[in-house]
Protein backbone atom coordinates (compact mmCIF):
# COMPACT_ATOMS: atom_id res chain seq x y z
CA UNK A 1 0.00 0.00 0.00
CA UNK A 2 1.48 3.39 -0.92
CA UNK A 3 2.18 6.03 1.74
CA UNK A 4 -0.52 8.31 0.26
CA UNK A 5 -3.11 5.54 0.41
CA UNK A 6 -2.12 4.71 4.00
CA UNK A 7 -2.59 8.36 4.93
CA UNK A 8 -5.98 8.51 3.20
CA UNK A 9 -6.98 5.25 4.87
CA UNK A 10 -6.05 6.60 8.28
CA UNK A 11 -7.99 9.81 7.61
CA UNK A 12 -11.04 7.83 6.50
CA UNK A 13 -10.86 5.59 9.54
CA UNK A 14 -10.42 8.58 11.82
CA UNK A 15 -13.60 10.03 10.31
CA UNK A 16 -15.38 6.75 11.05
CA UNK A 17 -14.11 6.55 14.62
CA UNK A 18 -14.78 10.23 15.37
CA UNK A 19 -18.31 9.70 14.11
CA UNK A 20 -18.48 6.55 16.22
CA UNK A 21 -17.38 8.44 19.32
CA UNK A 22 -19.59 11.45 18.64
CA UNK A 23 -22.51 9.91 20.47
CA UNK A 24 -22.83 7.51 23.35
CA UNK A 25 -25.13 5.32 21.26
CA UNK A 26 -22.53 4.22 18.69
CA UNK A 27 -20.80 0.87 18.85
CA UNK A 28 -18.04 -0.80 16.80
CA UNK A 29 -18.53 -4.49 15.98
CA UNK A 30 -16.68 -7.00 13.84
CA UNK A 31 -18.03 -8.41 10.60
CA UNK A 32 -21.15 -10.47 11.27
CA UNK A 33 -21.56 -8.94 14.73
CA UNK A 34 -24.60 -6.81 13.90
CA UNK A 35 -27.08 -9.68 14.07
CA UNK A 36 -27.97 -9.05 17.70
CA UNK A 37 -29.53 -5.66 16.85
CA UNK A 38 -29.99 -5.49 13.06
CA UNK A 39 -31.59 -7.51 10.28
CA UNK A 40 -32.06 -6.84 6.57
CA UNK A 41 -34.85 -4.41 5.78
CA UNK A 42 -37.89 -5.83 4.03
CA UNK A 43 -37.31 -6.59 0.35
CA UNK A 44 -33.55 -5.86 0.54
CA UNK A 45 -30.89 -8.28 -0.69
CA UNK A 46 -27.20 -7.74 -0.01
CA UNK A 47 -25.91 -6.19 -3.25
CA UNK A 48 -22.53 -7.50 -4.40
CA UNK A 49 -20.03 -5.19 -6.10
CA UNK A 50 -19.41 -5.48 -9.81
CA UNK A 51 -15.88 -5.90 -11.13
CA UNK A 52 -14.57 -2.43 -12.11
CA UNK A 53 -14.68 -2.10 -15.91
CA UNK A 54 -11.29 -0.37 -16.07
CA UNK A 55 -9.56 -3.50 -14.71
CA UNK A 56 -11.77 -6.26 -16.09
CA UNK A 57 -9.32 -7.07 -18.89
CA UNK A 58 -6.53 -7.58 -16.35
CA UNK A 59 -8.77 -9.92 -14.35
CA UNK A 60 -6.86 -9.82 -11.06
CA UNK A 61 -8.26 -11.43 -7.92
CA UNK A 62 -8.90 -8.59 -5.45
CA UNK A 63 -10.48 -8.06 -2.06
CA UNK A 64 -11.23 -4.98 0.03
CA UNK A 65 -12.49 -4.72 3.59
CA UNK A 66 -14.75 -1.67 3.82
CA UNK A 67 -15.78 -0.23 7.18
CA UNK A 68 -19.21 1.39 7.22
CA UNK A 69 -21.78 2.78 9.60
CA UNK A 70 -25.39 1.69 9.96
CA UNK A 71 -27.39 4.73 10.97
CA UNK A 72 -30.40 4.43 13.30
CA UNK A 73 -32.69 4.58 10.24
CA UNK A 74 -30.95 1.48 8.83
CA UNK A 75 -29.14 3.18 5.95
CA UNK A 76 -25.37 2.88 5.48
CA UNK A 77 -22.74 5.62 5.32
CA UNK A 78 -19.14 6.61 6.19
CA UNK A 79 -17.38 4.02 4.00
CA UNK A 80 -13.63 3.56 4.57
CA UNK A 81 -11.22 0.91 3.29
CA UNK A 82 -9.58 -0.94 6.17
CA UNK A 83 -7.61 -3.54 4.22
CA UNK A 84 -6.96 -4.39 0.57
CA UNK A 85 -5.20 -7.13 -1.39
CA UNK A 86 -4.63 -8.08 -5.02
CA UNK A 87 -3.03 -10.97 -6.87
CA UNK A 88 -1.30 -8.36 -9.06
CA UNK A 89 2.22 -7.42 -8.01
CA UNK A 90 1.89 -3.87 -9.38
CA UNK A 91 -1.48 -3.17 -7.70
CA UNK A 92 -0.03 -0.85 -5.06
CA UNK A 93 1.81 1.26 -7.61
CA UNK A 94 -0.94 1.48 -10.23
CA UNK A 95 -2.68 4.82 -9.82
CA UNK A 96 -6.37 4.50 -9.02
CA UNK A 97 -6.26 0.69 -8.90
CA UNK A 98 -7.51 0.04 -5.36
CA UNK A 99 -9.73 3.14 -5.48
CA UNK A 100 -11.77 1.53 -8.28
CA UNK A 101 -12.40 -1.59 -6.20
CA UNK A 102 -13.09 0.44 -3.06
CA UNK A 103 -15.66 2.54 -4.93
CA UNK A 104 -17.33 -0.61 -6.26
CA UNK A 105 -17.47 -2.00 -2.73
CA UNK A 106 -18.88 1.23 -1.29
CA UNK A 107 -21.42 1.38 -4.14
CA UNK A 108 -22.72 -2.05 -3.17
CA UNK A 109 -22.76 -1.18 0.54
CA UNK A 110 -24.72 2.00 -0.16
CA UNK A 111 -27.57 -0.23 -1.39
CA UNK A 112 -27.68 -2.25 1.82
CA UNK A 113 -30.42 -1.32 4.25
CA UNK A 114 -31.22 -2.74 7.65
CA UNK A 115 -33.95 -2.53 10.24
CA UNK A 116 -33.71 -3.10 13.99
CA UNK A 117 -34.69 -6.51 15.29
CA UNK A 118 -38.22 -6.55 16.76
CA UNK A 119 -36.94 -6.58 20.34
CA UNK A 120 -34.68 -3.52 19.80
CA UNK A 121 -36.62 -0.38 20.68
CA UNK A 122 -33.76 2.13 20.37
CA UNK A 123 -31.37 1.10 17.58
CA UNK A 124 -27.74 2.19 17.97
CA UNK A 125 -25.57 3.64 15.24
CA UNK A 126 -23.21 0.77 14.47
CA UNK A 127 -19.81 0.80 12.76
CA UNK A 128 -18.81 -2.53 11.23
CA UNK A 129 -16.92 -3.93 8.22
CA UNK A 130 -17.69 -5.98 5.11
CA UNK A 131 -15.15 -8.05 3.18
CA UNK A 132 -15.79 -7.65 -0.56
CA UNK A 133 -14.13 -9.95 -3.10
CA UNK A 134 -13.65 -9.62 -6.86
CA UNK A 135 -12.96 -12.89 -8.62
CA UNK A 136 -10.66 -12.48 -11.59
CA UNK A 137 -9.67 -14.72 -14.48
CA UNK A 138 -7.56 -17.11 -12.43
CA UNK A 139 -9.61 -19.56 -10.35
CA UNK A 140 -9.21 -19.05 -6.62
CA UNK A 141 -11.05 -20.34 -3.60
CA UNK A 142 -13.41 -17.57 -2.38
CA UNK A 143 -12.60 -18.22 1.28
CA UNK A 144 -8.87 -17.98 0.51
CA UNK A 145 -9.40 -14.73 -1.41
CA UNK A 146 -11.51 -13.19 1.36
CA UNK A 147 -8.98 -14.25 4.01
CA UNK A 148 -6.48 -11.73 2.62
CA UNK A 149 -8.76 -8.87 3.67
CA UNK A 150 -10.69 -10.11 6.68
CA UNK A 151 -10.33 -7.93 9.77
CA UNK A 152 -10.57 -9.86 13.03
CA UNK A 153 -10.66 -6.80 15.32
CA UNK A 154 -12.17 -3.69 13.74
CA UNK A 155 -11.90 -1.55 16.87
CA UNK A 156 -8.15 -2.29 17.07
CA UNK A 157 -7.68 -1.61 13.33
CA UNK A 158 -9.35 1.79 13.71
CA UNK A 159 -7.31 2.58 16.83
CA UNK A 160 -4.05 1.62 15.07
CA UNK A 161 -4.94 3.81 12.08
CA UNK A 162 -5.58 6.71 14.47
CA UNK A 163 -2.16 6.24 16.09
CA UNK A 164 -0.44 5.99 12.68
CA UNK A 165 -2.15 9.18 11.52
CA UNK A 166 -1.08 10.97 14.71
CA UNK A 167 2.54 9.80 14.29
CA UNK A 168 2.59 10.98 10.66
CA UNK A 169 1.14 14.32 11.70
CA UNK A 170 3.89 14.77 14.32
CA UNK A 171 6.56 13.83 11.78
CA UNK A 172 5.16 16.26 9.20
CA UNK A 173 5.09 19.10 11.76
CA UNK A 174 8.68 18.30 12.83
CA UNK A 175 9.84 18.40 9.21
CA UNK A 176 8.06 21.71 8.59
CA UNK A 177 9.54 23.18 11.78
CA UNK A 178 13.03 21.97 10.82
CA UNK A 179 12.63 23.49 7.36
CA UNK A 180 11.50 26.85 8.80
CA UNK A 181 14.38 26.89 11.30
CA UNK A 182 16.87 26.02 8.59
CA UNK A 183 15.60 28.79 6.31
CA UNK A 184 15.40 31.41 9.08
CA UNK A 185 18.93 30.66 10.31
CA UNK A 186 20.37 30.52 6.80
CA UNK A 187 21.36 26.87 7.27
CA UNK A 188 20.83 24.35 4.52
CA UNK A 189 18.05 21.82 5.10
CA UNK A 190 20.38 18.88 4.58
CA UNK A 191 22.78 20.23 7.23
CA UNK A 192 22.39 17.85 10.24
CA UNK A 193 22.68 20.83 12.59
CA UNK A 194 19.75 22.62 10.94
CA UNK A 195 17.04 20.29 12.20
CA UNK A 196 16.07 20.57 15.86
CA UNK A 197 13.44 18.51 17.67
CA UNK A 198 12.42 14.89 17.64
CA UNK A 199 14.12 12.43 15.25
CA UNK A 200 12.25 11.83 12.02
CA UNK A 201 10.80 8.30 11.96
Automatic annotation (TrEMBL):
It comes from the Bacteria. SUPFAM superfamilies: TolA/TonB C-terminal domain (SSF74653). Residues 162-201 are annotated as: Disordered. Residues 1-22 form the signal peptide. Keywords: Signal. Residues 162-179 have a biased composition (Basic and acidic residues). This is TonB C-terminal domain-containing protein. It comes from Noviluteimonas caseinilytica.
Amino acid sequence: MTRTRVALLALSLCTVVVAAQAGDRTRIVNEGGIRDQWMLADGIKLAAPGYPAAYKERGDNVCVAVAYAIKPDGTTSDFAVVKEWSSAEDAGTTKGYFDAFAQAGAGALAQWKFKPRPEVTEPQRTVTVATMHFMGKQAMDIAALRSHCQVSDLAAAIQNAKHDATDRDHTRRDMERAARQGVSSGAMINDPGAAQGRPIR
